[in-house]
Amino acid sequence: MTDFPIDPISSVPVKYWHKVDHDRIQCDLCPRFCKLHDGQRGLCFVRGRLGDTLVLTTYGRSSGFCIDPIEKKPLNHFLPGSPVFSFGTAGCNLACRYCQNWDISKSREFDTLADQATPEMIANAAKAHHSRSVAYTYNDPVIFHEYAIDVAKACRAVDIKSVAVTAGYVCSEPRAEFYQYMDAANVDLKAFTERFYHKLTGGHLQAVLDTLQYIKHETNVWLEITTLLIPGENDSEQELNELSQWVMDKLGPNVPLHFSAFHPDYKMLDIPPTPIATLVRARDIAMKNGLRYVYTGNVHDKSGSSTYCHQCGNILIGRDWYVLSDWNLTDDGHCMQCGTACAGVFDGPAGEWGEKRQPVRLGGYSTV
């Protein structure tokens, strides 16, 4: 918790909190359950106590706007090749020592850097730039819960999908509300041990596993998972076997799993980058455990980033980084060679956005 000043003019009241004693209130959005005195912010930095209520200090503000390939989220089975309008705010409710976006997620200068962006402005900008979806990314949309939901509502009004890129660290009631408005999610399953979560993120594994099962079994949200492999921390054969077997047993064979390469950053500059051989080994283990769609990420590996038919082995979607090469799917997602369905959300032919990254100006504010 911190006593960094809270501006009452730019803050909006939120729900998911309760009083715990005569001078503290508890935030009930995520399993951290920050208990706050007046004027204090939670660990996420963007939710804090102002008087006798909890407020969000980043509603209507963004750290930047950019059109990305949907595969960068990463989502390989959700409208492949399409452009996604991406934005985030600042702060995070985990404390990952290796954070790859620490300049945004750990920002404490946000109030002087961001400009206004209403939900309608974002939805209309996505529509104007021919994006099929909006991604809540760069930092975790869990902490700007109310803003993300309002943007998603505005997007639905103009037929734009919503994509959550999240660590899945959220309590059950706000989780249920949030995923009513999402169409796809990539959840960061950071490891498969409580030791890792406690030591390197300040969180707990079970809450994330609960979110994964909730999304898969109680919503219609398209789900993919990413695990960043850090040498010596979460890349052992035993852990990779247990993780992929859990995904198979609890979520099923059709949930895509992405193994991504770590690079030294933030407070873990002494750890070397992940060798590509580690990613290939992880992919092999997961596929031997029955998962049909397993990918390598953050490295150049055409074979490991492409999609194959689990029935006949035909290449369905070839990928070279974020550029689609081969495309052997029908418009509704069936293998052109044997007719087997490929799990995912497909709507017509492949998009042609490619690897472009296009910054967008919105409301006079330049972007990431």
Structural description of this entry:
The structure is a single chain. The radius of gyration is 20 Å and the shape is globular. It has two domains: 12-56, no CATH class; 62-359, Aldolase class I (TIM Barrel, Alpha-Beta Barrel), CATH 3.20.20.70. It has a nine-stranded mixed beta sheet. The protein has helices at residues 102-105, 110-113, 119-128, 145-157, 172-179, 194-201, 205-218, 237-251, 276-288, 302-305; strands at residues 12-13, 17-21, 24-27, 35-36, 47-50, 53-56, 61-62, 64-69, 83-88, 115-116, 133-136, 161-166, 184-188, 222-229, 257-261, 294-297, 307-308, 315-320, 323-327, 358-359. The chain is of the alpha/beta class and 368 residues long. It has ten helices and 20 strands.
Structural key phrases:
368 residues, alpha/beta, TIM Barrel, three-stranded antiparallel β-sheet, disordered C terminus
Report the sheet with the most strands, covering strand number, pairing sense and barrel closure. Answer: 9 strands, mixed
Total number of domains: 2
Mean pLDDT: 92
So, CATH architecture of the largest domain? Answer: Alpha-Beta Barrel
Instruction: Provide the structure class.
Output: alpha/beta
CATH class descriptor of the largest domain: Alpha Beta
Side by side, the strands of the main sheet go 16-15-14-13-12-11-9-8-20
Tally of alpha and pi helices:
10
Annotate the secondary structure layout.
Elements: E1 12-13, E2 17-21, E3 24-27, E4 35-36, E5 47-50, E6 53-56, E7 61-62, E8 64-69, E9 83-88, H1 102-105, H2 110-113, E10 115-116, H3 119-128, E11 133-136, H4 145-157, E12 161-166, H5 172-179, E13 184-188, H6 194-201, H7 205-218, E14 222-229, H8 237-251, E15 257-261, H9 276-288, E16 294-297, H10 302-305, E17 307-308, E18 315-320, E19 323-327, E20 358-359
Helix pairs in contact: 3-4, 8-9
